[in-house]
C-alpha cells in the first residue's frame, strides 16, 4: 500500500475522531525533523511534528487534521499533548547524553492563553528539562487577535529561557509587520523560497534581505524545505547557514534522531 493510499480521506473524519485522538495516548505521536548547520552538517536542533495514526483509517496527514483542530478551537489541547511528548523526548535525549534543542509549534491564540504557558512551565519542571532546550515556533495559521497578549507571552517565554522562532516567514501572517511587532530569536524562511531560489530573482533578493536583517538583529535564519543540492548551494551562497528539509533529514522517530545526532 502506498503512503498516499494509507491516508484517511478527510470526509471520513469526524469531530469525535479528533477528540478521541487528543484523549487516546496511543493515537498521537511525534516525529522530529532535523535542523542542520549548513557549514558543518551537524544537527543543531529538531522540530517536533504531530502524527496521527487512526485506529481504523490509518495515518492521517497533519494538513487534514490540523484545520479540524483549529476549527474546533482545540489548539490548546493539541499543544499540551505535543509539549508533553516533546518534553519526554528531551528527557530521553538527556539520558543518552545528547543536548539538542527541540521545537514545538504553536499559534498566536495558543501562546496568548496563560493556561497553556503554565502547563508548559510545569511540565518542563516536572520533567527537569531546562527551558534553553525548548524552541517555540510561532505558526502563521491565522491573524493575531490579541497582539499585547502575544507579546507578553513571548516575553515571558524568553525570560524563562526559550528561543522564539517565527515559522514560515514570507507566507500567510508571517510578514514584516509581525517582525516589527514581536521580539524573536530565529526566522524560518518559508519553503517556497528554497523551491524557487534557483529561478526567481525575487526569491533570491528576499532571502538576501532576510539574512542581512537577521544579521543586524542578532537572529538565526533557518531555510525550510531544502530538498535538492541546488537549493542547498543557493541558500548557502546567499548567506543562510541553517536549514531544514528532505535533503538534510526527513521527519524521523526519536531513536533515529538520536543516532543521527551522535
TrEMBL record:
Domain EAL: 11-262
Listed CDD domains: EAL (cd01948)
Domain of life: Bacteria
Pfam assignment, any one: EAL
InterPro entries: Cyclic-di-GMP_PDE-like, EAL_dom, EAL_sf
Protein name, per record: EAL domain-containing protein
